[in-house]
């Protein structure tokens, strides 16, 4: 197909050249006008260079498409990373959730009972949804602990002056 495109372009160029230059016989095709073997060799060389250049452009385009597809697949794979829950405190790292513990690299460390990543995600989503129904601002999450109390995950919003203990 690429050779046909190059041939078509060369035919169009030849037609335009014939139309512009007086004295060329309009009814003769390009092959009959060029009887000199050197002229034919030059045109063949030009045609081969055009075909090669077109193939290189197509290959570069296909490499770009493959790269874009790989990037998209990597992004989709990271979105499908099952039940990962991003830490609401630091908003960078994934939480580690075990039956009796929720922790993060940022220092979040909360004792829980029978917690799973799915339950934690559901709790965070429902709490954020409930808050967003009455306030347009994003709440903040902090870890609090008293003198004798265990650590707790607190959601608070300074705009609507609300707070809630999640864990």
TrEMBL record:
| Annotated keywords | Metal-binding, Zinc, Zinc-finger
Quick one: a GO biological-process term for this protein? protein import into nucleus
- Ranges for domain RPA-interacting protein central come to 5-75
Q: Per UniProt, what is one GO molecular function of this protein?
A: zinc ion binding
Q: Which InterPro entries match?
A: RIP, RPA_interact_C_dom, RPA_interact_central
Tell me the domain of life: Eukaryota
- One Pfam family here: RPA_interact_M
In Swiss-Prot or TrEMBL terms, this protein is called RIP protein
